[in-house]
Known about the structure:
Oligomer: heterodimer
Structural class of chain A: mainly alpha
Largest interface: A-B, 35 and 26 residues
Radius of gyration of chain B: 31 Å
Distance between the termini of chain B: 112 Å
Strand content of chain A: under 5%
Helix content of chain B: 55-70%
Number of strands of chain B: 0
Structural class of chain B: mainly alpha
Number of helices of chain B: 10
Strand order of the largest sheet of chain A: 1-2
Order of helices and strands of chain B: HHHHHHHHHH
Number of domains of chain A: 1
Distance between the termini of chain A: 30 Å
Amino acid sequence: MNFALTDLMPLLPEVFLLAATCFILILDLFLSQDQRYITYILTLAALAGCGWLTFSTATGITAYAMHGMFVDDLLSDTLKLMLYFTVAITLVYSREYLRLRGMFQGEFFVLVLFATLGMMVMISANHFLTLYMGLELMSLSLYALVALQRDSAIASEAAMKYFVLGALASGMLLYGMSMIYGATDSLELPRIALVLQADIGNSMVLVFGLVFIVAGLAFKLGVAPFHMWVPDVYHGAPTAVTLFIGTATKIAAFAFVLRILVQGLQSISPDWQQMLVIMAVLSMAVGNIAAIAQTNFKRMLAYSTISHMGFLLLGLLAADINGYSSAMFYILAYVLTGLGAFGMIMLLSRQGFEADRIEDLKGLNQRNPWYAFLLLLMMFSLAGLPPTIGFYAKLAVLQAVVQAGYTWLAVVGVLFSLIGAFYYLRIVRLMYFENPEDTHAITPTTDVQMLMSANGLAVLGLGILPQPLMALCTYAMERSL
Amino acid sequence: MSFAVVVFYFFAAILLFAAFRVITTRNPVHAALYLVLAFFTAAGLWLMLDAEFLAITLVLVYVGAVMVLFLFVVMMLDINLDRLRDGFWDYLPLAGFVATMLAVEMGIVLGSRNFGLSIVPAPSLHPAGYSNTKELGGLLYTQYVYPFELAAVVLLVAIVAAITLTMRRRKNSKYQNPAEQVKIQRGERVRMVEMASDQPSSTKS
């Protein structure tokens, strides 16, 4: 067995992040609470370092490392860069919120970095084992993050539900993987694809395994009928963690689904297409209809996530390059909008007050017209109204679905989006046509102000000029699949 | 029937029985002990497959460490069995239906038609002097080094998470600092007081 240093080069960002995380973990021990901002800055610096390493080593050539367990292609580079970006924005938005709630501790940052490492592993996985290890690394960190507020009963309940259902989902996923292994005699995704291309052979075992894999994936993505944990976790977790779960993990989950279903099991796509159709329709129905009844803004956004993940599945089940790249565009659009929407909850919160009820948004226009406008953009984008990015994302997915011959699915998608528009527009009505009950001044720090403004304008700007991002998604997919 | 087959069925029967009892027994301590039995018999099965290292690790790690900890936890918690079984009969029809369907499907898929000896042949016998431990070590540190390292990171996360969630420094908790205790000087503990002797002689009459 020869060991070459070049074998480690594609892994450079992962190695760097792990080393940086361990360094921060130890350094944090020697800092007093007043110096905690050093941990915060170092965490951002670690993400920036990863970004630089990923960007500078992105060649566009697919490279395999670690005996084919790790793949570095343009898709993984693009998604990883988006991931660092998302995590960094999450941390900036969360800083004040955490500080006021006594959670501005080294553990938070270390766990976030470990979760990020897990997501990177998932994005670059080329083997069932690495996929699973990355997933567990991410999930374990997330369970702990949800439970971070130990004195909150609702957070503990959310963590417990998340943990039990997450463990169940992992078990299903593993069982499904073992079946696929039994049928194809390999755990490596490209080899599985090759075996299946040559001869599907025993399709009964394959489909049996596929059912478990798809159920496990659906749990992790949070699509109906495996969505029960999503509202409780989003509601119960501290908003900073909700923001993290609601955005960054979705990028990783998308990569996860893409790697297993598309790169590994493309040959049996007719089988998983049927399953995705059912789940997509159910998610869009459950998400959009249940969201109407919510009074809590975080819960409403949770149901909105379920419906958006259903929409994402529409793009995936088109099962061609066009569909995958529109799904990738959709996930990036959703992440960008979700960052702004959850970030706004934290921006409006203050010491001892959580702005997570829908009524708290009443008359936001009178309190601060600029934030009301930004939240309006987010709501328009979530609802899929032009000229925001959400509109173009929905349009691209629907086009892909129609091209793949599922016109009726596109009609169903549009109908449920119409229902969904109701509760997004209700928020807009509350902000603009009601009088405020709460007259506290909104005083975010300058960096949050700037970032939130940039975030809102990006939602608008990328909606007007979506072509560059769409071209990037298509290019990444073409070069990687 | 060869001796190995008899041993296999013996272990397999105990394993199934123990696993069944884990979920049906009323007492959580008994359930944990049945789980120990299940692990032991599973280790026996692995031993028959020449996987000595895995078999011994299973006994050492799961039986020796994990299950003992588990027993401690079960004994310390006051588990209300009636509440655990609340709603059992309400859910039984649906759950029973789903479970039966699943079991039948698994029976069909995993039967000898898909996984019979003709499709998945038995592995060839290992030569004398074959060391399962050495093979495993070789694979683990070469081909599977990446997931192996990731497993180490997962354990690190588990440590960080467990400490974060349980360590609680109360403001008014009282604890001793042995270093300070050792450094104590006599003067800090004993206060010498100068005072005039207080003879009772002058007080009387």
